[in-house]
Write a structure and sequence with these properties.
Blueprint (H helix, E strand, L loop, with lengths): L10 E3 L8 H7 L10 H16 L8 E3 L3 H12 L5 E6 L2 H12 L3 E6 L8 H10 L5 E7 L1 E2 L4 E2 L2 H10 L5 E5 L9 E2 L11 E3 L12 H17 L1 H21 L3 E2 L11 E5 L6 H12 L1 E5 L8 E5 L4 H12 L21
Parallel strand pairs: 1-13, 3-4, 3-5, 5-8
Antiparallel strand pairs: 2-10, 6-7, 9-10, 11-12, 12-14, 13-14
Helix pairs in contact: 1-7, 2-7, 5-6, 7-8
Bound molecules: pyridoxal-5'-phosphate.
The site of pyridoxal-5'-phosphate has 12 residues, from α3.
Keywords: Aminotransferase, Transferase
Protein name: Serine--glyoxylate aminotransferase
């Protein structure tokens, strides 16, 4: 029975998919519907309008694509570039690595700027490449905003500044799957939905293919929750909770995988596990004993860290249990006690 969930609620702290708020779950609990009925274009219209606020744009055109983040990557690349185009891509962790792999398979000419995992994009190298590219061979810069695998956030404004400084016309394609700021994202992280919608920037309100109606209703409910709280308040809350998490990690004498403060993520904290501990053991114990799902390090950082997605309040519960799991003596035998702080939000 080891591979089945035990009774009770599973406490989901992997860095995505994240917990879905009850309000959003209830909004999706409905029969299938005819997506050519007048109701669906009306719903889609509100979504396309309101999603702009999440991307903080009034002029951008959002696309809702029935896919995952990986499909949104491909869609962004193939709709803005042509095979053989020269692009510059930053490699800072597993998700930037996977995106670069996709870029190569789609036959782009990829110039990779690599950093040690735990560090952010090397912008000095970008500046020197753009300075040398006076004939504008480089057509796009691809950057993962928030590298989920290492909890590192890149400075997008600095990338824009470098391009402006050299008056370089290259496009900036941003993966915002685990942060959502500028260009493309998936539904299963910051929007607290099931996996299955890729969101990028024109789509008519009539669908050219069968959309997932349930996800559209879920997205409506998720946006309503965000707007009710206020987007800036949501961002401030994550920033506050992220800081609390980092302080707790520090107090346990453990290290953040992100090596400098300027790269700290407010959505994912990746914790380096001491060499005498095996992170997969911690993750396995959390799952079996507490019905608590934590993320494992991937690829180069496998075995070295556990990850958790930042979630309203329940994070406190995760922190307490992590304290117990890594043996700092916190005596938390009844994890359910900590759920009284409320449940995860967007
Ligand atoms: N980009 C980042 C930063 C991610 O964290 C992920 C998934 O975790 C992806 C892309 C891939 O998204 P998906 O798994 O929805 O295809």
């Amino acid at each position: 029975m080891d591979n089945f969930y035990g009774p009770g609620r599973n406490h989901l702290f992997v860095p995505g998919p994240v917990n879905i708020p009850e309000h959003v779950i209830r909004a999706m609990n409905r029969n299938n519907e005819d997506y050519r009925s007048p109701a669906i274009p009306a719903l889609t219209k509100t979504l396309l309008e309101d999603i702009k606020q999440i991307f903080k744009t009034t002029t951008g055109t959002p696309f809702l694509i029935p896919t995952t983040g990986t499909g949104a990557w491909e869609s962004a690349l193939t709709n803005t570039l042509s095979p053989g185009d020269q692009i510059v891509s930053f490699l800072i962790g597993q998700f930037s690595l996977l995106w670069i792999d996709q870029q190569r398979r789609l036959n782009f000419n990829v110039d990779v700027i690599e950093s040690e995992w735990g560090q952010g994009a090397n912008l000095e190298v970008l500046a020197s490449k753009l300075a040398a590219d006076t004939v504008h061979t480089v057509k796009a810069i691809c950057i993962v905003h928030n590298e989920t695998a290492t909890g590192v956030t890149n400075n997008l404004a600095a990338v824009r500044k470098i391009l402006d400084h050299y008056r370089h016309p290259a496009l900036i394609l941003v993966d915002g799957v685990s942060s959502i700021y500028v260009a493309l994202t998936g539904s299963q992280k910051a929007l607290s939905l099931p996996t299955g919608i890729g969101i990028a920037y024109k789509l008519e309100t009539y669908w050219p293919y069968t959309p997932s109606i349930h996800l559209l209703y879920g997205l409506r409910a998720s946006l309503d929750l965000i707007f009710e709280e206020g987007l800036d308040n949501v961002i401030a809350r994550h920033s506050r909770l992220a800081k609390a998490t980092r302080l707790a990690v520090e107090a346990w004498g453990l290290k953040n995988c992100a090596q400098k403060e300027e790269w700290y993520s407010n959505s994912v904290t990746a914790v380096l596990v001491p060499p005498n501990l095996d992170s997969s053991e911690i993750v396995s114990r959390a799952w079996k004993r507490y019905n608590l799902s934590l993320g494992l390090g991937l690829n180069k950082v496998a075995g070295k860290k556990i990850l958790f997605m930042f979630e309203e309040s329940l994070i406190l519960f995760a922190l307490q249990n992590m304290g117990l799991l890594i043996g700092d003596g916190m005596d938390v035998e009844n994890p359910i006690l900590f759920t009284v702080f409320g449940c995860g939000g967007n």
